[in-house]
Amino acid sequence: MLRPAPSAHDPDSDDALIHRILAGESALFERIMRRYNQRLFRAARAILRDDAEAEDVMQETYTRAFAHLGQFRGEAQLGTWLVRIAVHEAFARVRRRRRLYPLPPGDSAEAFPMLDRPTPTDPEHEAHNAELRKLLERAIDELPGTYRTVFVLREVEGLSTATTAECLRVSEEVVKTRLSRARLRLREELYERAGVVAGDAFTFGAERCDRIVAAVLPRLTGEPTG
């Protein structure tokens, strides 16, 4: 069953794209993938701490989302819906490989557990920021899983507290608590210095974006690869 035509006038809005995809323009799903690739990569990688496995989760997420696109009712934003699927799949992989991240003491056990930055003005500044970003990424990877996921969605991806809570199916208070504890676990000096590039952590560049699209789109549209 087709969704009602979107009332928004933007032909590139999520609702407009979904309506056209369900009407038969399957190739338009590429726009959705490119729009949300980085967000899904960051969400999945925050849980799995592995780039390749995070990309596998992305492909599975898009395949499932496409198959069930007609069931998307718009009760949440499309990006939130996709992140939920990715988070569910990532945690399922963690459970399957028997490497569950233990909840830190005092944390609750739910079902699922932007910083401004100046443009570099010279190569030395850019190299310095790149090094800070690597230091920050390593520090984030060392956080407990429940803290790491919230920190990445809130501080790296820049989602609101409400949207993060919706993605992870926890309360806003839980998000605030975990974010606060994540910040405390990152050394204050490191966090303050690396904050200028926090939004650049775990980027999903154009080449990787093309790879995901090339891997997933033919499976959805039935077109041959190559």
Describe the 3D structure:
The protein is mainly alpha-helical. The chain has 2 domains: 105 residues, RNA polymerase sigma factor, region 2, helix turn helix motif (Rna Polymerase Sigma Factor, Chain: A); 78 residues, Orthogonal Bundle (Arc Repressor Mutant, subunit A). The chain is built from 10 helices and no strands. The radius of gyration is 18 Å and the shape is globular.
Which parts are unreliable, with pLDDT below 50 for 5 consecutive residues or more?
1-8, 99-120
* SSE run: HHHHHHHHHH
> What fraction, in percent, of the residue positions are helical?
55-70%
The domain tally reads: 2
Summarize the structure.
The protein has 226 residues and is mostly helical. It contains ten helices and no strands.
Write the layout of secondary structure elements.
Layout (H helix, E strand, L loop, with lengths): L13 H9 L6 H20 L2 H17 L10 H19 L26 H19 L3 H12 L4 H8 L3 H14 L2 H7 L11 H16 L5
List the main descriptive attributes of the protein structure presented here.
62% helix, globular, 226 residues, Rna Polymerase Sigma Factor, Chain: A, 0% strand, mainly alpha, disordered N terminus, 2 domains, Arc Repressor Mutant, subunit A
